[in-house]
Amino acid sequence: MSAVDSIVAFGAALRVAGLPVGTGRIVAFREAAELVPPEDLYWAGRATLVTRRDEIAVYDRVFREVFGSAPRRPERLPHPRRRLRIAGAAELGGRPVEAAAPQDAALASPAEVLRLKSFANCTPEELLALAPLMARLRLAVPVRRTRRRAAARSGSSDLRRTLRRALRTGGEPIELAWRARRRRRRRLVLLLDVSGSMGAYSRALVVFAHAALRADPRFEAFSFGTRLTRLTRALATSSPDEALRRAALQTEDWDGGTRIGETLKTFLDEYGHPGLARGAVVMICSDGLEVGDPELLRAQMERLHRLSYRVVWLNPLKENPDYAPLARGMQAALPRIDVFASGHSLGSLEDVAATLSEWG
């Protein structure tokens, strides 16, 4: 087996073991392996294929199975603890002011800390702890009137029911019946960017999609990078951890490149126009770092805007107050976006949910 075949087999084994190893990471591993001596192959893979601490144990096990052995990891030196000290006095208006006696600060609850913490800074354990909090998030998607009609207290007259009731009163239509068009909640469609630039947020957004789909069976979820993958069935499980594992196995381009225009065209051609996006609320979660043709993205966003009810774009880079949508992809998509938010934390998702409820 050649070196390239071994690297590809190693990447496939990691994916089977549950790590989100996409084509982009495998290519980076192959390029790194060509630059280092054979004894450093383990560390080349660690640097390119592993992004979180909890993945190291799985990586070591699969590395031993494929390549035979893994080097011993060096021991870490303990970091010295740092303490913060409050000065005894401070200058205020030229006069020394004695500091107040130390008091026990009121600590925020763990749920409140997680609500405000950026997904990029969350550990795998914290992401799983966010799952029940996201399950409480109510996405009040607006309702719409359907073509079907049902009995109502007011509306248009229901001649058939009126005549049927008249049989009870000797043929006299004393009690009139009415009907009105039924109302049904609009569909929510989630398009999740799982490319390499979104690696710090992809898992949290999959957990969010898992919670949203459990709220309504008509909701849909897709992932995209260089291709489009339908995740609705993969996320149809009660366990968020299992949903993450299924999504990672089903998505072949996880941590790869980003071609938003091409994947959006695929979605509209195969799913959007046949019915999924018609009159729906479409939520795109991406940083907008498009590597494809921005004109194609602009054209597909115009199609999506005409077809859907509202288009929501969540860009975690917007967490930074100094962020400006200067990327080509964002500039092409921005004119056709109804709500542009960050979606970098649970608190920001709650703000988006509040915006959706205002449309009702």
Q: What structural category characterises the helix and strand content?
A: alpha/beta
The average pLDDT value, as a whole number, equals 83
Portion in helices: 40-55%
Tell me about the biggest sheet?
6 strands, mixed
Radius of gyration: 27 Å
- The N- to C-terminal Cα distance equals 60 Å
Q: What is the β-strand count?
A: 11
Strand order, main sheet: write it out: 8-7-6-9-10-11
- Total number of helices: 13
Describe this structure in words.
- The structure is a single chain.
- It is built from 13 helices and 11 strands.
- The chain has 360 residues and is an alpha/beta fold.
- The protein is elongated and about 100 Å long.
- The protein is 42% helix and 15% strand.
- A hairpin with a 2-residue loop joins β1 (89-92) and β2.
- The N and C termini lie far apart (60 Å).
What's the helix and strand layout?
Elements: H1 3-16, H2 23-33, H3 41-49, H4 56-67, E1 89-92, E2 95-98, H5 110-116, H6 124-135, E3 143-152, E4 156-157, H7 159-166, E5 178-185, E6 188-193, H8 199-215, E7 220-224, E8 228-230, H9 240-250, H10 260-276, E9 281-285, H11 294-307, E10 310-314, H12 328-333, E11 339-341, H13 346-358
Parallel strand pairs: 6-7, 6-9, 9-10, 10-11
Antiparallel strand pairs: 1-2, 3-5, 4-5, 7-8
Helix pairs in contact: 1-2, 1-4, 2-3, 6-8, 8-9, 10-11
